[in-house]
Amino acid sequence: MRIQHEFPAAAEYLASWIRISAEGRDWRRVERLANLAAALRAPNLSAVLVGLLEADISGLNEEDLVDILGEIRAVESAGAIFRIIKRRLDVDAPAYWLCQKAILSLSELDTDEAERYLRSMLSDWWPKPVRWHAAVVLCVEDDLGFDEGSMLT
After folding, report:
1. Contacts (Cβ under 8 Å, ≥6 apart) of 12
2. What does pTM read for this prediction?
3. Under a CB-based contact definition with an 8 Å cutoff, are residues 133 and 122 in contact?
C-alpha cells in the first residue's frame, strides 16, 4: 500500500484521527479512516471501534464498523458486536443487514465466546432470518430443519 511506504508512521496515528473525527461527528471521515486503519492493521483500532459501537451514536455506519472488527479479527469485540445486534434488532428488520454482518464477523473471530453468542442466536427468541444466518455460519442449518429456498425468498 502506497501510504504505508510513503508515510510509515501514519498507522500509529489513525486511531487518534478516528477519535478526533468522531468527536467532530464527521462520520464519513470516521468510516474512511477506519477502513484505512484496517488495511494498515493500525494499533488500537479495535478499541476505538468498540468504543464507538458501545456509544450508540446516531448517524454512525455501524455495519461497516462491525464488518471491520471481523476483518481484523478483533477477538475482544465479540461482546460489543453481540450487544449491538440485540440493541438494533427491531430497527434492522426485515432484512437484518447489520445482523448478517455481525454474524459473519462473530464467525471470523473464531473464539469460544463468539461461538457462544452465535449459538445463542439459534433460540426461538431471535427472528427466523437471524437464526438461519447464525445456523449457516455454524453449519447446522440442515440439522435445525431450515429450508434454504424458503429463507431466500
Report:
1. 42, 43
2. 0.89
3. no
**Nearest of 75, 74, 5, 86 to residue 34 by alpha carbon:** 74
Give just the sign of the alpha carbon dihedral 26, 85, 46, 32: negative
CA distance 56 to 32: 19
DSSP 69-93: HHHTT-GGGHHHHHHHHHHHHHHHT
The grid coordinates listed for 81 are: 458486536
Q: For residue range 75-124, what is the model confidence (pLDDT) as tens digits? A: 999 999 999 999 999 999 999 999 999 999 999 999 999 999 999 999 99
What is the total residue count of the chain? Answer: 153
Look at residues 49, 39, 52, 42 and name the one whose alpha carbon lies nearest to residue 13: 42
What is the C-alpha separation between 32 and 143, in angstroms, rounded? 41
